[in-house]
Amino acid sequence: MQIGLVGLGKMGGNMRERIRKGGHTVIGYDRNQEISDSKDLQDMVNQLTEGPKVVWVMLPIQFVDETVTQLVDMLSPGDIIIDGGNSKWTNDKRHAEQLKAKGIGFLDCGVSGGIWGLEYGYALMVGGEAADVAMVQPIFDALKPESEYGFVHAGAHGAGHFAKMVHNGIEYALMQAYAEGWELLEKAEEVTDVPKIFESWKEGTVIRSWLLDLTVDALHKDPHLDKIDDIAEDSGEGRWTVNAAVDLGVPVPTIAASLFARFVSQQEDKPAMKMIAAMRNEFGGHAVVAAQPEKTMTPGEGGNPKGH
Amino acid sequence: MQIGLVGLGKMGGNMRERIRKGGHTVIGYDRNQEISDSKDLQDMVNQLTEGPKVVWVMLPIQFVDETVTQLVDMLSPGDIIIDGGNSKWTNDKRHAEQLKAKGIGFLDCGVSGGIWGLEYGYALMVGGEAADVAMVQPIFDALKPESEYGFVHAGAHGAGHFAKMVHNGIEYALMQAYAEGWELLEKAEEVTDVPKIFESWKEGTVIRSWLLDLTVDALHKDPHLDKIDDIAEDSGEGRWTVNAAVDLGVPVPTIAASLFARFVSQQEDKPAMKMIAAMRNEFGGHAVVAAQPEKTMTPGEGGNPKGH
Amino acid sequence: MQIGLVGLGKMGGNMRERIRKGGHTVIGYDRNQEISDSKDLQDMVNQLTEGPKVVWVMLPIQFVDETVTQLVDMLSPGDIIIDGGNSKWTNDKRHAEQLKAKGIGFLDCGVSGGIWGLEYGYALMVGGEAADVAMVQPIFDALKPESEYGFVHAGAHGAGHFAKMVHNGIEYALMQAYAEGWELLEKAEEVTDVPKIFESWKEGTVIRSWLLDLTVDALHKDPHLDKIDDIAEDSGEGRWTVNAAVDLGVPVPTIAASLFARFVSQQEDKPAMKMIAAMRNEFGGHAVVAAQPEKTMTPGEGGNPKGH
Amino acid sequence: MQIGLVGLGKMGGNMRERIRKGGHTVIGYDRNQEISDSKDLQDMVNQLTEGPKVVWVMLPIQFVDETVTQLVDMLSPGDIIIDGGNSKWTNDKRHAEQLKAKGIGFLDCGVSGGIWGLEYGYALMVGGEAADVAMVQPIFDALKPESEYGFVHAGAHGAGHFAKMVHNGIEYALMQAYAEGWELLEKAEEVTDVPKIFESWKEGTVIRSWLLDLTVDALHKDPHLDKIDDIAEDSGEGRWTVNAAVDLGVPVPTIAASLFARFVSQQEDKPAMKMIAAMRNEFGGHAVVAAQPEKTMTPGEGGNPKGH
């Protein structure tokens, strides 16, 4: 079948390639004319000539509203727009209603797979109406891994992005779990070869996983991660997950802790710790102690430096 | 080679079988004579007739001290004892010194694999001296999975159990992460089929793992886990991991949060929450509000019921 | 001066009394005619006859929009509306703009004090323009405690409710801190009189506070809190605080942990713990162990029941 | 009455002064002869001439064992030793038994008050037998604040230090709570004067406390804490509290989170965050995205940079 694909960046470009390998026709559009298959959005739509038009939008969240609104005027009843970007699930209902008013279908699709997706397939989580899902199914089949897994119609409009968001929330906590274990092993005197321990865990353990495999790859390249900055960025999904959990009254202590650990890593200073230090100065002469000569801590000279 | 194996319970029994499949001779001892290969501990030792004697102790932690002490008198310089149970790593140095005084070698070995180990092999994390590890290597090779992974000489005495402890600490947080994500999906109105979402994650996603596979198995049997009690037991390792982290100054927010979530699940009541509720009663007439008729919350009758 | 007060519930009623004690005229309105000073909202506005009209809205959040919109048509340029309820700070800018279009001033005012406020005064956190604050200052002075503290012009529109929200977020974590300490003392064998320990902390300690005083009062009435349900409700502010922190990239581990503890206490079952238990069943025969007779844990019969 | 006081550091020196103000005789000993009242420990003991001898040890934990052992040989049945330092409660039973064998009494006494104690009195939490407490009561009365609070006989041997440990654990979480709230206010655009907000909270609020007062003092000196390092030290008690909670199965999420926040602040780099960053590099070309020119994020050029 034919499909229009808006956004040919790292993800969109690879997805175009994988869909084409699946035997379908992709008319891509990207503002960067060197990689675009069409002059502009209208040209892309015009090149879709067979049956109902299907357009996959693969853009950063801040450009989705504008693009959907432009497409409304170019499409006709019975056509379908898929938002495959990392959009917030709360936007999906709005887009679905905006398009329904014109008779255009809408699907939200969370996509996982990153740079590995081109070769192994992308995991797809889709929200929307069953008839619309059915129409786009050949494209989903081309994108997903060659196995019985990797695709789900997760529910109504928004369910696809919600499922992808939760996937990423879980991912945050899984990563933090391995990271905490790694730091602990690095600190233990008895332990001599942390990378080998992680590598050994790849088989036979309860904690074997794809993320563990990646951890091993990273430790092979840099056994103590000396070349890596200690800053962990976060994308929207981790924040949205915690916010959604709070709104739904769901306790998510590990996902929240993972997110907060990243926040701290992103700070140049740690304001809360300044406040803790300031309070300690106030109540305890902790600063005073720090300024005293070391020898006051020897027996008989001592006292109780922290008797607050 | 020959090996004595003390403790033929669920783990020990299966390990005997797997070692035998590897072509080795196992003389097992268990107080339960129906499954034991020997009359008593001394009889087991006596049946080990080839070269240095190797005895694998596979007992709950509370019986290890006693058994090691009994074995000291039955073994000779050059022999080796392996503690393969879920012992605390801090015990290992003590056992190593106790045995070294008699010229007997000691290895600590963390074992992962559970009921799946018999078929797929056990992941082994070993601490102790290289020469001792080399002597027992044929047994390790029989127990481990048939792949290049699943075995590590992790370091000095204690390193094996330390690595296994950290493995379990990580496991706690991984499990909690999936559990939080599952609860969140269950609460989302848009989402219609949570088991299918989990199943779809088995391929192509960042969070695919053996634990995810088990989660899917559990949801197949009981889609909303209605038949499962909401009590999550904890074994020693999770607690030891947090205590070790605290002693080493390592922040482990997700592992600790996972452990605390299990503690709460084990409580018949939640004392801290009683205290929160009691304080709310004191400062705010929260109880008073609760006792008022609903209609006071309608407009114009209202007020600010929580203006503390 | 004169002021109109909408909502004469628990908070509003007491505030009317305290403002009157301060020598001012309050025309209250409540749908409950037994406690109302006016027939309806219009009648209340009509009774305000001196200078610019000042109306204080003291309603649950869900009724504020409607009431503000009704008041717009009854007020004139130069008049002022104060939202003193537990409104979300993000609503304040909207209300300020809605009113500014008609030349009416707006102040948001977070109010703390609960049932104690009538006697000791209410702590007030106000957001909005300085000229508007100045006009209402006599009312603020009547409401606040008789000390130099208890009132702040916190910043622009929304700052009052934001400050109050943060106040409540801090409150959540403070309460949880005392509750954790209390539970720990209750569990320690050596400790014989927990209420007396809490009482002793009222003087000379680092942790003395008003909340501690309330804790002592609660323990005097019920030394082990046997009569209190272990359910801790949460109001909007705790949730808003965590959401605001997430949006601003601020790590709030203790405030979030406090909120999640309350969420868990509110659940009839604990879904995440079901999932943990289900996974344990899958990987480990933990259920199998549980079903085995106790005696398998004796030495020599043993094995390693948790060797996953 | 007479008392010997070992350790005249910051705490011990002030306590000597306060006990003397209470009308008692203090024979202090400190290795620093300039501040000592006695030549050595034996000389101090010799100068205690009235009735049973009472010796208060006020030393850092690492010197307590040695000093207690020295005192055993200098004291007689019926005498009493008090450990008033920040000792671990688990040491107290051992000391009590060591001394009981010689007929010497033992009390453990947690002391709070810091540099403020000299003027306002020290809060005292005492563990041990009632008869021993009664004998030392005049000294406790001299040290404690002049109010009905500030002293408790908390229970058996160890209960005093346990109560003090929990006090400090609570303190960690209280401090973190204010610190989180402060950081959040600092980040909010609407808020213009954070120190004034904190100051206003001193009266009429739920969160008023001595720690809040100290916070206000600190903000008066340095409104944004620009001169304070963002490193929060921890002393033993916070760690002991979390370890004790883990051993007793008590969930302490806020106390643990407070401790971990300090751990992170003490790290030169944050190892766990390196691991998170390394994993992100592996799975997602996150580094690759970072290296791409900014313009790829504009519409139509876009793609989905985080579609893992």
From TrEMBL, chains A, B, C, D:
GO biological process: D-gluconate metabolic process; pentose-phosphate shunt
Keyword Plastid found: no
Protein origin, superkingdom: Bacteria
Protein family membership: Belongs to the 6-phosphogluconate dehydrogenase family.
Enzyme class label: oxidoreductase
GO molecular function, one term: NADP binding
All copies of domain 6-phosphogluconate dehydrogenase C-terminal, residue ranges: 160-296
Keyword Oxidoreductase appears in the UniProt entry: yes
Entry keywords, A to Z: Gluconate utilization, Oxidoreductase
Protein name per the record: 6-phosphogluconate dehydrogenase, decarboxylating
UniProt-listed InterPro entries: 6-PGluconate_DH-like_C_sf, 6DGDH_YqeC, 6PGD_dom2, 6PGDH_C, 6PGDH_NADP-bd, 6PGdom_BS, NAD(P)-bd_dom_sf, Pgluconate_DH
EC id: 1.1.1.44
Gene3D superfamilies, alphabetized: N-(1-d-carboxylethyl)-l-norvaline Dehydrogenase, domain 2, NAD(P)-binding Rossmann-like Domain
